[in-house]
Each structure stands twice: as structure tokens, then as C-alpha cells.
Design brief:
With 656 residues, this protein is of the alpha+beta class. It has 17 helices and 26 strands. It folds into three domains: 47 residues, no CATH class; 296 residues, D-Maltodextrin-Binding Protein, domain 2, CATH 3.40.190.10; 264 residues, Dipeptide-binding Protein, Domain 3 (Dipeptide-binding Protein, domain 3). Helix 16 runs antiparallel to helix 17.
Length: 656
């Protein structure tokens, strides 16, 4: 009980926000009429100040009702060497059976029949070109080379057949796929151009989320003719079709090369495409107001799957209470809700729709760049010149003590800089109570996480990889590492950050735990695109931060993982660290066709992640939507590993 009260005190800001949202919801519903709201007072018995500078778009992180972890059988290299001549889209609905729920008190939908409206946390900024960082596939606007149907079968979305020969991939595209607004038929030249536009090797100005990943994976791409694209592989990745070019994972999207050429083929053409999205998906854009609203119309007689509705509207509603109110009053047909609201509304008869997607929330000890050679190219690196080694940061270890620019004077006898920093990271990892965070912040429905990249529900996960909650041991480690409490009880100070929507409440809670063991923590929420992302691209980040970092629930244990934790993605996105043993394992696993061999390699990675603790797990948090069953009969979303709450909107089946 003491610990529970302590965490409530540590996240006092969360409680205040929650009460404010309850009051807001009451006013909204009173205006709408017909719903009684019971306010619940929470008594704070202890307050521990936590300094927080907030630049917040959303008060509360989105959580979900339940966690579904899927094993996806994958012998991808074997699959892609086959020539597939016929692809039939097959969606298998994986839903848990539940007792019947009374829906008599659900609100009648207020929208027109055939039009679905959803309240989302964020609709983002529209961009009809990959290099500008587009992510339109989740709205059904764009398509990708491949897709994954449950239970894990990889099929072509716009690709018809594919094969691998040596370091070449040959992709033949489907015929008859039409671009929106009469821009003609999709062909291999479009596919090659989109790959070029995305990849940092072929477009150094690309800010695509996948620019660096594609740079590590592919050297070049060219259209041999209107039907065939030849891709030269840089570093082989057995997941190339199941993840890197798949709408369940890290994919580029299909836009029209003809549009780019007809508009001048220059910066002005790029800007026109950013503002006018021309794609091939089952929905086409009617209106896209950045960070406000998206309106899309169904494409009739779509080559792959014609929607059963006429229009979808996505509204950006940052306030959690407002999203819930809109769903309760029938203003919207579905909403992306915070976890307590999802749990409550499901009990009232609303339905849950999910693609089994989500993400690991982890503490990343930024600045630990330990690779002095890029293994895929042999390029010599000079990480000691990066910002992480300009001063002796407690959580950053320097493997080349003679090359680090600072004078290291605080290592206790018998402890080098690497061991000193390891003890600090372990102390910080043991200092927060994962189970209590899950119970208090996630309503007991997330999954406590321990080491990054390997979630506990995987059958291969070992109990010995769990991180105990042991603040006494954490203090002992900090003393051992040479960071005793000073006269004010402080061991050292640091800044702890996250981005809007990535874990504001967790940030405050964990900061409070660290304060308890003498680490003075300033918490701050940064803008992702403009402020934070550039620092993990150029490897200048030195801060401890929370992010999912593309380590998502459902990834099979044998899949090669973690290139973003290495120098393999230099020039593109990274996760604040570069570990040589992750790079070695990633390359080695990709050479293995045998899943058992890959499991053995990844087991070694997991053990080193546990020993060195460069990233410390918090929780695995899946995503999904709460929908009104009077509006939506069923929504068998396509399988998805990425963290969007929506996957396959064209598969929605209306109830009216």
C-alpha cells in the first residue's frame, strides 16, 4: 500500500490531469444531455516535486485494453526465393470469444449511413511523397509493395511475383492498378522511383522514417521495364518482404512518378505532391487539413478490396475526455481512447478492434555509441568525437578511454568507465517498479517489460532476463559506481525526455522513482520532428529518454532485430545507441535460413542487452480502437507490427 501511495504522489500531475478531464467530460456530456457522470476524488497522501517542462499536445498516453502477442512463422528467405504467380487476399479474424454484452444503452450513431467518423489523438501532416516522411497507408490512402494477412502470410499488395538471385531482387508489379484522380496506371517505374526517393543512399535529402533502414538494406533500385524492378541488396535482411516493404512494418508507399515529372521534377513538384496526395489505395483524399482532419472517399472497383462504406473522416481530438465524450454521444463511430476509458466502454458494450499492433516503451540511455567500424561497409567511425563523449556522463561508457576527450577522474578503484556506467544504468533500471506502473498508470492491462527488443510473452524469453524492482540495490550500485549522495541527498542531475504521445505519464512516474534514489531529474517533453529526431539521425543525442524505437510486440524471436541500435542505419534514424554486438548478430542472423540458428543468435543478444542494459524496458503497450457496434459490425484489421491503432480500414464492415 505504501508503494502505491508513493507512486500516486510521484505522478501527482497525472492525477490532476485526470480529474480535470473528468470534469471536462462531465461538462461536455451535460451539454449533450442524457448521461450521468460520477466524479471520483483521489486523495494525494504525499507529494514529491518533479520538475516538468511540458510542451504537450496530449495529456495522457494512449493505452489499450489487452495485449495480444502473436508468433508469426517466418522462413522469409525461403519464401522470397520462390516465384509466386497468384496472390489471393485472405484475412483471418483473430478475436477472443467473450460473453454477450448488452448494447441497449449504446448511443445511436449521428452520422449518415455509409460515412464513418473517428476521433484520433493525431492525424499528422499530409505528405504525398516518401522523402517528406509520409505515413498515409494507415488511413487506406496509399499502398505498399507487400502486406501481411493473419496469421503471418506475406503476400503482394502491388507486387505480383518476386524472387532473389544472388544480391539481386526481382519484383514484378501487378497490372491494372490505377492512381487516383485519373493519373494513370501504376508500373515498375513508379515503384523504383519511390524506392529511390525513400532511400538515403539514393536521396540524401530523404527524411523518410525508413531512409536509414533502406540505406542499410538496399544499394540501388532500377526499373528494367514497365513490369520489373531490380533491387541490389546492400545488407541482406530476411525480413525484407515481411517488414521493410510491408504495411505491417517499416514500409515506403506508392506515389505517382508521372505526377512528379509532369509537375516539373523539381522542388516545386515535391511541394505540390506534399499538398496533393495521389496514390493507389482503396480510399482517396477529399480533404487533408494538417493536424486537424482527414476526409477520404472510397474507391469503387478497387483492384484489391473495394470498401463497403462511402467515406471515412478522421478528426484530430487531442483531449482524451473529448474523444470519449464524442463516442458516448454518437458523434463519432470509433475513437482512440486512453486505457481506463477503453476498459470502461468495453464493459458498457462498445467493441474492440485491433491489428495486434503496439510498441515497447523503453528507457534509452542515449549517447552510448560504441561502434568504431560500420560492419556492413567497413567504414571507420570516430564515435569518441560525438556529443556523448564530450563530457563524462554517468550513464555513458567509453570503450576507448584513451580516445575520449574528457579526463575521467571519478572511477572508483578497480572499476573502469564501462563498468561504472553499466552500474549506473542498472541502478536506474532497478529503481522503478514496473508492476506498480502497470497497475497504476496502465490499469493493470499493459505488460511489464524488462530488456529492449525481447518482450516477456515470447516463448523463448527467459525469466532470468527480468529486471527486479530493488531500490536498495540500486542505491548500492550508485555508491559502488562512485556517485554517493551529497549534502542535499543528490547523486547527480540529468534531463529526462520524451515526445508528445510517447509516454508523458510514464516519464513523470519514472522520474519520481529516480528522485527517490538521489538522481535529480528534470523531465521535459519535446517536439519529435523538429527538435528530437534530428539528434538521433546525426547521433548527437546524449539524453536519457523514453521511446518505442520500432521494437514492437509480436515480432518473432528469430527475426533479426535492432539495426536502429547500430551504425548500420547511419544517415537515417537511430535509437540513441550503437552496439557492435547487435550489428554483428543482425548480420549473422540474416545469413541463417534456419530459424533455430537465428534464435540461438538472438538469445546471445538478449543476454548482452540484460548485462549491459543500454535500454531498459518499461511496458509493452498495444494499440487499437474502441468502436460502436451499432455503427461497425466487425473490423477484421490486417495484422500489423507498427504502432498505428488502425490497419486496413477498407476491411471495415458497417452495421447499417
Amino acid at each position: 500500500m505504501r508503494n502505491k501511495n508513493m507512486l500516486k504522489s510521484l505522478i501527482k500531475a497525472k492525477t490532476i490531469l485526470t480529474l480535470a478531464m473528468v470534469a471536462t467530460l462531465a461538462m461536455v456530456l451535460q451539454a449533450c444531455g442524457g448521461t450521468e457522470i460520477v466524479e471520483v476524488e483521489k486523495i494525494i497522501t504525499k507529494e514529491v516535486p518533479v520538475e516538468v517542462e511540458k510542451i504537450v499536445k496530449e495529456e495522457v498516453i494512449v493505452e489499450v485494453e489487452k495485449i495480444v502477442t502473436k508468433e508469426v512463422p517466418v522462413e522469409v528467405e525461403k519464401i522470397v526465393k520462390e516465384t509466386i504467380t497468384k496472390v489471393v487476399e485472405k484475412v483471418v479474424v483473430a478475436t477472443a470469444s467473450a460473453a454477450p454484452v448488452d448494447t441497449s444503452n449504446l448511443p445511436a450513431p449521428k452520422g449518415k449511413s455509409g460515412v464513418m467518423t473517428f476521433a484520433m489523438i493525431d492525424v499528422g501532416k499530409g505528405a504525398g511523397i516518401n522523402s517528406a516522411g509520409s505515413m498515409n497507408y494507415k488511413w487506406g490512402i496509399t499502398e505498399t509493395p507487400f502486406m501481411t494477412n493473419m496469421p503471418g502470410d506475406v503476400v503482394g499488395m502491388v507486387v505480383d511475383t518476386w524472387e532473389k538471385t544472388g544480391d539481386k531482387l526481382l519484383l514484378k508489379v501487378k497490372k491494372g492498378i490505377q492512381f487516383h484522380d485519373g493519373w494513370g496506371e501504376f508500373d515498375a517505374y513508379d515503384l523504383a522511383w519511390n524506392l529511390d526517393d525513400t532511400n538515403t543512399n539514393t536521396n540524401e535529402d530523404s527524411i523518410s522514417y525508413n531512409a536509414g533502414d533502406y540505406g542499410a538494406l538496399f544499394t540501388s533500385h532500377k526499373a528494367i521495364d514497365a513490369e520489373t524492378v531490380e533491387i541490389t541488396v546492400n545488407t541482406w535482411d530476411v525480413r525484407w518482404a515481411a517488414n521493410q516493404l510491408n504495411n505491417q512494418g517499416q514500409t515506403m508507399e506508392i506515389y505517382s512518378k508521372k505526377v512528379f515529372d509532369d509537375k516539373g521534377g523539381d522542388a516545386a513538384a515535391e511541394q505540390w505532391m506534399i499538398e496533393n496526395i495521389i496514390a493507389t489505395g482503396p480510399f482517396q483524399v477529399v480533404e487533408y487539413k494538417d493536424e486537424e482532419k482527414i476526409v477520404v472517399d472510397a474507391v469503387k472497383n478497387h483492384h484489391r478490396h473495394s470498401p463497403l462504406i462511402d467515406q471515412m473522416i478522421y478528426l484530430e481530438v487531442p483531449e482524451a475526455a473529448a474523444r470519449k465524450a464524442m463516442l458516448l454521444t454518437g458523434e463519432v463511430d470509433g475513437a482512440d481512447l486512453i486505457l481506463p476509458d477503453r476498459k470502461e466502454l468495453q464493459a458498457e458494450g462498445f467493441s474492440w478492434a485491433s491489428a495486434n499492433s503496439g510498441k515497447e516503451q523503453v528507457v534509452i540511455f542515449g549517447g552510448n555509441y560504441w561502434e568504431d567500424t560500420r560492419l556492413d561497409t567497413g567504414e571507420a567511425l570516430t564515435p569518441w568525437e560525438l556529443d556523448g563523449f564530450k563530457e563524462d556522463l554517468p550513464w555513458v561508457g567509453c570503450p576507448w578511454e584513451d580516445k575520449c576527450p574528457y579526463t575521467d577522474t571519478n572511477n572508483p578503484a578497480g572499476i573502469d568507465d564501462m563498468e561504472q556506467a553499466r552500474l549506473v544504468r542498472w541502478a536506474m533500471a532497478m529503481a522503478y517498479d514496473r508492476d506498480l506502473i502497470n497497475e497504476t498508470i496502465f490499469a493493470g492491462q499493459a505488460m511489464p517489460d524488462h530488456i529492449s527488443m525481447f518482450i516477456p510473452s515470447l516463448p523463448e524469453f527467459k525469466d532470468e532476463w527480468k529486471v527486479p524492482y530493488d531500490p536498495a540495490k540500486a542505491e548500492e550500485y550508485l555508491d559502488q559506481a562512485g556517485y554517493p549522495r551529497d549534502g542535499d541527498g543528490i547523486r547527480f542531475e540529468h534531463k529526462f525526455i520524451t515526445m508528445a504521445g510517447f509516454g508523458e505519464e510514464i516519464l513523470q512516474g519514472i522520474a519520481g522513482f529516480w528522485e527517490e534514489i538521489g538522481i535529480k531529474t528534470e523531465s521535459q517533453i519535446l517536439d519529435y520532428r523538429g527538435v528530437f529526431r534530428p539528434t538521433v539521425v546525426d547521433r548527437s543525442n546524449t539524453l536519457v529518454y523514453i521511446q518505442g524505437c520500432r521494437h514492437h510486440n509480436g515480432l518473432p524471436f528469430d527475426w533479426p532485430r535492432g539495426p536502429q541500435n547500430t551504425a548500420l542505419t547511419r544517415g537515417g534514424f537511430g535509437c540513441g545507441i550503437e552496439m557492435p554486438w547487435i550489428a554483428e548478430a543482425f548480420l549473422a542472423a540474416n545469413e541463417q535460413e534456419d530459424a533455430a540458428a537465428r534464435i540461438e543468435i538472438n538469445t546471445g543478444v538478449a543476454e548482452k542487452m540484460h548485462h549491459w542494459m543500454p535500454q531498459s524496458g518499461i511496458a509493452v503497450v498495444p494499440n487499437g480502437m474502441i468502436v460502436n457496434p451499432l455503427s461497425i459490425k466487425e473490423w477484421p484489421m490486417r495484422d500489423g507490427f507498427e504502432s498505428s491503432p488502425i490497419q486496413g480500414p477498407e476491411l471495415l464492415v458497417p452495421a447499417r
